[in-house]
């Protein structure tokens, strides 16, 4: 089944606009939070690794590298940086001592929770200023976004 040129153009425009909107939303939230943030800002890869370890406690360095599509030595460097900030803990696997397992430290959990809470507060305040129709449209788009994410994740090698 082939797509008509109009559908392809529409899909391409939708893809461009969706990426632009999501990127802009993340940037605005990050900028707003950092204005009042009491901590040293983290690099994007550091945040991604902390979030992954939060979602998958005990993940290995190799598994984290594969999931984040980063070289294992890059993840090892990130681990060392985050350990130096006391945000991440590294321990040896019980079965294979060569495998390093990662968990968040208490400071790491606290920091991620504070960021998540502040981001939620900012979004809730902004959503409350939108019309009910706009909030409903955003809520209605969430299942489609979840399916889009699933399709993208399934395309990973």
Number of helices: 6
**What proportion of the residues form beta strands (DSSP E)?**
5-15%
**Whole-number radius of gyration?**
19 Å
The outline comes out as: globular
* Structural class label: mainly alpha
CATH architecture of the largest domain: Orthogonal Bundle
CATH top-level class of the largest domain? Mainly Alpha
Number of domains: 2
Q: If you had to describe this structure to a student in words, what would you say it looks like?
A:
- A three-stranded antiparallel sheet has the order 1-3-2.
- It has two domains: 1-36; 37-154, Winged helix-like DNA-binding domain superfamily/Winged helix DNA-binding domain (Arc Repressor Mutant, subunit A, Orthogonal Bundle), CATH 1.10.10.
- It has six helices and three strands; from the N terminus they run ααβααββαα.
- The model has no long low-confidence stretch (mean pLDDT 90).
- It has helices spanning 5-36, 44-55, 61-68, 72-84, 106-128, 132-154, and strands at residues 59-60, 88-92, 100-104.
- By secondary structure, it is mainly α.
